[in-house]
Structures are given as C-alpha cells and as structure tokens.
Amino acid sequence: MAWYIGNAFALSMLRGDGILRYQRASVEQVRLWVAQVRPISYMGHADIARIVSTQLGVEIPVNRVNISLKPGDNVIVAQYMGPRLQEGTTELPDGARIEYFLVALSVQAEECTDFEFDEGSEYWAMLRKAEEVARLVAGKVIVKRDEFKNYYFEVEARGFTASLWEE
Fold this sequence. Notes:
Blueprint: E1 3-6, E2 20-25, H1 27-37, E3 40-41, H2 46-56, E4 74-81, E5 97-105, E6 109-111, H3 122-136, E7 140-146, E8 151-157, E9 160-164
Parallel strand pairs: 1-3, 1-4
Antiparallel strand pairs: 2-5, 4-5, 6-7, 7-8, 8-9
C-alpha cells in the first residue's frame, strides 16, 4: 500500500479493477496524513508544490512522474482552484484556493458471515444503519471485510449497491 501526493488525478493512473473512493479533506487532516505516511510526491507544478509545502509545513518536491495505482494505494490531491497562476508565484491570487482530497483505490474485500459487534460500537451502529436502509429499499445487507480487517457494509437492492464505510 503506497501513499502519494500530487496536484492532479486522472483515471489513467488506475491499474486493474477496484472501488475508487474519495473525500474532501481539511489542511489540518492533510498535515496529519503527511506526517504519518510520508507520501511520495508526483507534484508536477512547481508553483503549486511551493504553495502546498507552505500550507502543510513540509517540503513537497516537484516530481514529474507517472504513477500507477494498485488496490490499497491512496492519493492526496492538492487541487488548485482559480485563475491561471503567474509563473514564480509564492501566494495564491485573490479568489484562488487549494482544495484537498483523499483518493483511495480500495483493496479486495470478501463477504463476511462470522462477525460479532459489541452493542453500541461504531460497527454495530453502522450495521443497524445499513439494515435500516435495506428495509427502506427492500434490499439486503452484506457485511464485508478487507485484507486490513476493516469491516464495511453494502446494501444491495434492485440491481444497485451502496456502501457504508467507517469515517
């Protein structure tokens, strides 16, 4: 399982099949992740790398490489939103911002039938919520566990599947 950080994300980075998930993240969350996992940079834009380094308080080097994601890999995307940057800029122009996202290519998971959750635990609450949703849509709940022993819950109904994951 590898961690990367860059200023863009493209479907061409994916190898093989998997479940692609993403979530927005605050600068504070990204600072914690970067400190814990020390991601590999694939930052292709020098000015954005400099601004992100300042925001995160850690050097994110420019590293113009192609990455190839496998199930279990994670990417922190620092997405620039705003007008074209002037070359050599060290600050964001008025109205511009960097939005952070965590993109994960989930690992293989298998259906799990031998689970027991303590009443009141987070997994117990998630299972109850999945069962409630399944009742509303006349579906069924499938409990799955990934290779890292994390549980998640799928509700299948009428040819559609929805997943409930731990935050």
